[in-house]
Amino acid sequence: MPTANLVLESSINAMTPRPALAFVSLILIAGAILLMFLTLLGGAVDKNPTNKFYFLQADTSGLGNAAAQSRWTFWNACSVINGRNACPKVHPAYPFDPNRNFDTSMSFGGNKYYLETRFMFAFMLIGLFFAVCALFLGLIALVSRIVSFLSSATCSVALFFQTITTALMTAAYVQGRNAFHSAGRSASLGRYNFGFMWAAVACLFLATVMFCVGGVTSGKDKTYTTRTGGRRFFGRKKSTRSRGSFIDPERQRRMEKEDSD
């Protein structure tokens, strides 16, 4: 019987939604990490397709030492050759600040983008770290309800920092594009980087919710323990009353008296 009980318990546990939700969450987190890495590699790796990734492209002709067209990434302000980034030396946390970038006095919104884009890089790395931690914890969440909640908490931290990074990116570069337009210059946002960053936010949000739902639904399973093996099963507890306890007491006394006669 212990073997049969173990098989029944395993089959019942397999019916819980936690493993499926954890597996989908792992795919979403892996996708978010990939998108975040692709955004980071733009401007740092001069290979296809990362040399097409940037936050903002603008007409910078005549601005100090700038090229005719410039693209901003996490690492530098790149010139454009045949529609691809041509980036100089790598500088981590490279700020979006045309006045400083090109040593020009022309006004493009002052220095208000400087801190926004500098903090972006730090928040991005923190979010990426917690996303990787959530990915490894998610492997254990396939078989553990407690780790499902822990994975959800870790993923929510990654979501928090990724959301801040994406919000700063949107605020800085949208305003920067508008500043170039106000100066009579063409400018456009990098659709790949913006798409990657917001898609990563969506993936981390869904993964956080699914991990949490998986833990909650597993906790709602009703179980009971048998008298013999101590194994846990779903369903209504089997009655332990003896068959004789259902017989009317008066009738039982009469039957005992007849037997004694």
What does this molecule look like?
With 261 residues, this protein is of the alpha+beta class. Helices cover 58% and strands 10% of the residues. The chain has a five-stranded antiparallel β-sheet, with helices on one face. It has a two-stranded antiparallel ribbon with strand order 6-7. A hairpin with a 4-residue loop joins strand 2 and strand 3. About 13% of the residues have low confidence.
Reconstruct the topology from this structure.
Layout: H1 2-14, H2 18-41, E1 56-59, E2 69-72, E3 77-81, E4 84-86, H3 98-102, H4 112-141, H5 145-182, E5 187-189, H6 191-219, E6 223-225, E7 232-234, H7 249-260
Antiparallel strand pairs: 1-2, 1-5, 2-3, 3-4, 6-7
For the CA atoms, what is the radius of gyration? Answer: 31 Å
Level of helix content? 55-70%
User: How many strands appear in the DSSP assignment?
Assistant: 7
Average residue pLDDT: 82
Distance between the termini: 44 Å
N-to-C SSE string, H for helix and E for strand: HHEEEEHHHEHEEH
Note the main attributes of this structure.
261 residues; alpha+beta; 5-stranded antiparallel β-sheet; 7 strands; 10% strand; rod-shaped
Q: Nutshell version of this structure?
A:
The chain is α+β, with helices and mostly antiparallel strands.
